[in-house]
């Protein structure tokens, strides 16, 4: 099993994501935990990831574990938590990792406040410089900590069932082909989700 993420893997992850940030570092370490416990991914023995956030770290998980939306082995649960569950498809072994927010210490809230001002276009040059300093400080903390210091690690919920190939149905309103599981029925007619929502608004 893999014990650590290599510098080359880190650089590949940064290149894929486009920049460095605290969320990406958390994702890198979560992927490291997955690979340590479940082994390196292979096409014939795929891993499965369930992410409870849409933050930057999900990109790291895609790059480092081989779990992607396109392959159906990356599942997003929109819970707003920095939590990641990983499974080995072969035997169902799994774990859930919840990031400990206290790892960042007092600099975490300060950096979040500065980043909000930067994204809003309201940060001064001094504040931008301070944000850069805090980013580097937090990067060192996340990358130097042990995985057990970073995450609360527990047993995962049962592994989600594998992706299925489903039929497509034509939406009665727009005529576009839509995966059967994503259609809605109304008054005996089949709608895609956007058209169904429009019908609902008119009721």
UniProtKB/TrEMBL annotation:
Residues 16-152 form the Formylmethanofuran dehydrogenase subunit E domain. Keywords: Metal-binding, Zinc, Zinc-finger. Residues 171-201 form the Zinc finger DksA/TraR C4-type domain. InterPro entries: FmdE, FmdEsu_dom, tRNA_methyltr_O, Znf_DskA_TraR. Pfam families: FmdE (PF02663), zf-dskA_traR (PF01258). One of its GO terms (molecular function) is zinc ion binding. This is Formylmethanofuran dehydrogenase. It comes from Desulfurivibrio alkaliphilus.
């Amino acid at each position: 099993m893999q014990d650590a993420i290599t510098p080359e893997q880190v650089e590949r992850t940064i290149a894929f994501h486009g920049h460095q940030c605290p969320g990406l570092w958390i994702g890198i370490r979560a992927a490291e935990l997955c690979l340590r416990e479940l082994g390196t991914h292979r096409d014939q023995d795929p891993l499965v990831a369930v992410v409870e956030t849409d933050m930057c770290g999900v990109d790291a998980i895609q790059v480092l574990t081989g779990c992607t939306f396109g392959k159906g082995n990356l599942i997003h649960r929109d819970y707003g938590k920095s939590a990641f569950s990983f499974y080995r498809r072969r035997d169902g072994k799994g774990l859930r990792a919840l990031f400990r927010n206290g790892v960042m210490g007092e600099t975490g809230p300060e950096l979040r406040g500065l980043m909000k001002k930067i994204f809003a276009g309201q940060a001064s040059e001094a504040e931008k410089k301070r944000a850069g300093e805090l980013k580097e400080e937090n990067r060192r903390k996340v990358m130097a900590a042990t995985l057990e210091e970073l995450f609360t690690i527990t047993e995962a919920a049962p592994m989600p069932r594998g992706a299925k190939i489903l039929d497509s149905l034509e939406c009665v309103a727009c005529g576009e082909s839509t995966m059967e599981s994503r259609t809605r029925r109304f008054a005996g007619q089949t709608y895609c989700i956007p058209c169904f929502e429009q019908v609902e608004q008119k009721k």
